[in-house]
Amino acid sequence: MAAELGLNAKMAKRAGLLHDIGKVPDDNPELPHAILGMQLAEKYKEHPEICNAIGAHHDEIEMTSMISPIIQACDAISGARPGARREVVESYIKRLKELEELALSYPGVEKTFAIQAGRELRVVVESERVTDQQAELLAADISNRIQTEMTYPGQIKVTVIRETRSVSFAK
Q1: What's the rounded Cα separation, in Å, for the pair 130 and 30?
Q2: Taking phi first (over 0 means left), then psi (-120 to 50 degrees means alpha), and beta for anything else, what does residue 117 get?
Q3: pLDDT tens digits for range 63-110
């Protein structure tokens, strides 16, 4: 992002790597980690723009550098991805299981796999119980149920896999 704006990308990368350094245990747990991190960076003579980006990434101090809002935005983007925050890991795993269980509730569904961090659901059906036409309807029905019954970020691709294998041996 910094390079696209004509800013020092190397400095932005360094600020991004150091922005949560204040989460390291310290003598003063009352201070927010952004302030602790900024103080630590200042102590070790880090560049003032990097110190500001560290201290401002949760709006504890005023942003004085163009790198600061970039670090704040990147922190928000990173933290919003599924499974990124410890406190949401359990709900993330629960959502993946709910996706799989929803699809397993249909007759003829053999296996389900929530993949791509829950952005895709693969549904394997029994070819002798589900026709090609039913597989298409099943994908649409599962998608509709996910949309109406679940809460999730972005979109979820539902892929129904119906496979027929013919095997013969030449002797």
Answers
A1: 60
A2: left
A3: 999 999 999 998 888 876 665 665 466 777 888 999 999 999 999 999
> Which residues, including other chains, have CB under 8 Å from residue 136's CB and lie 6 or more apart?
160
**Rounded to whole angstroms, how far apart are CA atoms 82 and 78?**
9
* Long-range interactions of 89-95: CB distance < 8 A, separation 24+: 92/118, 95/150, 95/151, 95/152
Distance CA 161, CA 25 (A): 49
Establish how many alpha carbons lie within 13 A of residue 144's alpha carbon, considering only the half-sphere containing its beta carbon. Answer: 6
- The rounded distance, in Å, linking the Cα atoms of 77 and 85 is 12
**pTM for this model (two decimals):** 0.50
DSSP secondary structure of 57-69: TTTSS---STHHH
Alpha carbon distance 166, 171 (integer Å): 16
Chain CA centroid to CA 12, Å: 22
